[in-house]
Design a protein that fits this description.
The chain folds into two domains: 4-210, Spore Coat Polysaccharide Biosynthesis Protein SpsA, Chain A, CATH 3.90.550.10; 214-315. The protein has twelve helices and nine strands. It has helices spanning 14-25, 45-55, 70-80, 99-110, 137-142, 158-163, 176-185, 214-233, 238-253, 263-278, 283-297, 301-315; strands at 4-10, 32-39, 59-64, 85-88, 94-95, 114-122, 129-131, 154-157, 191-202.
């Protein structure tokens, strides 16, 4: 049994794929398996994968003949895995050379469900690397409910993931990462932080997460809705509930009264916001405090007026 199964979904990333594979293949922890899921790439990604697998027998290739999305690709990789721990690397990103050795050793020492490293952002500017705007690690040390994004910066005990049926939402190809992170958080008993190893996230202008396409926003709204329904279903601590709900409300609010987006998207976001408020388990505490802070922090007068009117109308329905 390999110590870590590394799952790499691949779709049209030939420009970055070699750097990604080199960083994984050259890990100081050699006892790993590398599962690459080619999601019907139309460039030379599959040829690069075959080239690397011919030289490194740890590499396994799963090849989709039709594009099925990153969630399906990652789930397929998990299903094919046999390692003690699961790790994820996107094919345009890369990791520090001792990333998995450090996380694995910490996991064995502490018997944690997840062991999280740090993230640095690689800009499109040559050789420009910067810290993330908001590093959640200090918050995660205090309460693991704050581990609601940056899932790839960690490894996960494989039995923990499989026994709790944690997966990526198939059919949703935006905001699927927080779905995994937040779902895992519902079951954690212990999360460990390793602050000296890095996952390097590539900030690309053409990446899916940066595109303002209505289909992607609709996918994001679906993911938020699915996460919130699961949050309401799970029996989690009030603090945990409040942290996750505030994160979801914050993301959703950017799509309400957004003049760049269509009226339909704004309306869908408003309806989802209203449904989330009305179905909240802790309306008096979580919702009221969030709405108060949001109204106070809104800087654009026109949007602030509309948001205040919206929240006033919703508050009238809260029992």
């Amino acid at each position: 049994m390999p110590k870590v199964s590394v799952i790499i979904p691949v779709f049209n990333t030939e420009r970055f794929l070699r750097e990604c594979l080199d960083s994984v293949c050259n890990q100081t922890l050699s006892d790993i398996e590398i599962i690459c899921v080619n999601d019907a790439s139309q460039d030379n990604s599959l040829e690069i994968l075959k080239e690397y697998s011919s030289k490194d027998k740890r590499i396994k290739i799963i090849n989709f003949t039709e594009n099925r999305g990153v969630s399906v690709a990652r789930n397929a990789g998990m299903a094919a895995s046999s390692g003690e721990y699961l790790g994820f690397v996107d094919s345009d990103d890369y990791i520090s050379v001792d990333f998995y050795e450090c996380l694995y050793q910490r996991g064995v020492q502490t018997n944690s469900d997840a062991i999280k490293g740090k993230i640095k952002i690689v800009s499109e500017r040559p050789n420009y690397i910067k810290d993330v705007f908001y590093d959640i690690n200090d918050d995660v040390k205090k309460d693991f409910s704050y581990f609601y994004h940056s899932f790839a910066s960690a490894i996960y005990n494989a039995d923990f993931v499989k026994n709790n049926k944690i997966y990526f939402p198939e059919g949703i190809n935006n905001f699927e990462d927080p779905y995994f992170s937040i779902t895992a958080g519902f079951y954690y008993t212990k999360v460990e932080i390793a602050s000296n190893v890095y996952y390097y996230y590539r900030e690309r202008v053409d990446s899916i997460s940066n595109l303002v396409e209505e289909s992607q926003i609709e996918a994001l709204l679906l993911s938020i809705s699915a996460i919130y329904k699961r949050l309401n279903y799970m029996n989690v601590r009030k603090k945990h509930y409040a942290v996750v709900a505030a994160f979801l409300f914050k993301i959703l609010k950017t799509y309400i009264f957004n003049g760049v987006l269509s009226e339909g998207i704004n309306l869908n976001a408003i309806n989802l916001f209203s449904d989330m408020v009305l179905s909240c388990k802790y309306k008096n505490d979580v919702v009221q405090s969030y709405i108060y802070l949001s109204r106070k922090e809104e800087n654009k007068l026109y949007q602030k007026k509309l948001f205040c009117e919206l929240t006033d109308s919703i508050k009238g329905k809260i029992k």
